[in-house]
Design goal:
383 residues; 7-stranded parallel β-sheet; 15 helices; alpha/beta; single chain
Length: 383
């Protein structure tokens, strides 16, 4: 427990981030003696988090590109922070980090922490965009006390681009999952058979993706790749909440004639059970931070086919725990999936190595200890 109470406000654009990504670490911090609360846009998750004992302030924070509404968000957030008087503000995502860090400094918050969930600049964008985003991040980091990074690659990128917080370059924390929850041995034959029956799945291999329904996650290439593998037996599970491309993705599935082989699950609280009946995990994203869904799948002893982008290549070792293909390349994706579908021995070998590696590097407990060390550094900053 802390020797004295420190109020911590976590800022992110939407409630689903707080619930799905931040809740475990915030619960850990609360158990360590910190008073933890959230700020995000009006979201369905507000009530759930309040029921768990967390204070939630709903303030509009836009997602995506910089917009005029961001200035209003900064002013409202500054006013709230000046009233709440937290000792630490901890921001998340690019927009949450931009709006939140500026507001925290304007409000005179003693310590500002930012977690990089994946920099906005990457190899898939134009050099002008990358230059602009890196310039913004360099300036924001000058007004940040501590920067944490889920990705080792982002730490090296920050050093190369001289993106440095007051306490130094980003500190690697990783991205952790609850390895006791994502454990295949939890699910017996009866539970798996019941789910297969409910989803109308026989004994064919099951290919699963867990990602919001947007083309940025590679759904276009995935549908095209699946359509190229119709000579094989498989069923695909598309697990993820409706996003801006949901309707277009459904039309694409119909146009390629694979509607009877794809199950659109939507958002689900049964991810571990769904993974337990899966044989192959796929995430053909255009860009990622450090994808927790892939780590969860690997903990469940699933081989993964992912794209060669930051984060994905950090989690999946090519030809050891899965296969890594070029982004936006449905032909290479189809070839990798076909190889995995046709070779159950390879799937078993890759899956076993994936589970061992994921549990060693990405356990929740290890990540929490790294975050706790960063908060001890924050206490020294506060004085």
């Amino acid at each position: 427990m802390r020797r004295y109470l420190i109020k911590v406000v976590h800022i992110c654009p939407i409630g689903i981030t707080a619930k799905k990504l931040l809740l475990p670490q915030c619960t850990y911090l609360r158990n360590m003696g910190y008073e933890v609360s959230f700020v995000f846009s009006p979201s369905p998750e507000t009530g759930e988090l309040r029921e768990l004992g967390f204070s939630v302030e709903e303030l509009p924070i836009t997602r995506g590109r910089i917009a005029p509404a961001d200035f209003a968000s900064i002013l409202k957030l500054r006013e709230y922070l000046a009233s709440a008087k937290p000792g630490i503000v901890h921001t998340h995502t690019d927009k949450g980090g931009g709006v939140g860090r500026i507001a925290a400094r304007l409000a005179g918050v003693p310590c500002v922490i930012h977690t990089v969930h994946g920099y906005a600049f990457d190899e898939g964008q134009s050099s002008i965009k990358n230059w602009a985003y890196s310039l913004i991040e360099r300036e924001l980091s000058r007004h940040t006390d501590i920067v944490l990074s889920q990705s080792i690659e982002d730490v090296e990128t920050a050093k190369h681009l001289r993106i440095r917080a007051r306490a130094g370059y980003p500190i690697w924390i990783g991205n952790g999952v609850d390895t006791s929850l994502f454990d295949r041995s939890r699910f017996g034959v009866e539970a798996q058979a019941g789910l297969r029956s409910r989803l109308r799945i026989g004994q064919e291999p099951v290919i699963t993706i867990v990602a919001r329904l947007t083309f940025e996650k590679g759904y276009r290439e995935l549908v095209e790749a699946l359509a190229a593998c119709t000579e094989l037996q498989w069923t695909a599970l598309f697990v993820g909440r409706e996003d801006r491309d949901g309707a277009a993705i459904q039309r694409l599935i119909q146009q390629h004639g694979i509607s009877d082989r794809v199950r659109l699950i939507g958002d689900s609280d049964e991810i571990p059970l769904l993974l337990s009946i899966s044989d192959l995990f796929v995430l053909p994203s255009y860009t990622e931070g450090v994808p927790r869904t892939v780590i969860e799948a690997q903990c469940m002893a699933l081989p993964a086919v992912v794209t060669d982008v930051r984060g994905c290549r950090e989690v999946v070792v090519h030809r050891e725990t899965g296969l890594v293909v070029e982004p936006k390349d449905s032909v290479s994706l189809a070839s990798a999936m076909r190889a995995a579908i046709q070779d159950p021995v390879m799937r078993m070998q890759y899956g076993a190595k994936a589970a061992a590696r994921a549990r060693k590097l990405f356990s929740e407990d290890a990540v929490f200890r790294r975050i706790e060390s960063a908060y001890e550094l924050a206490e020294r900053v506060i004085g």
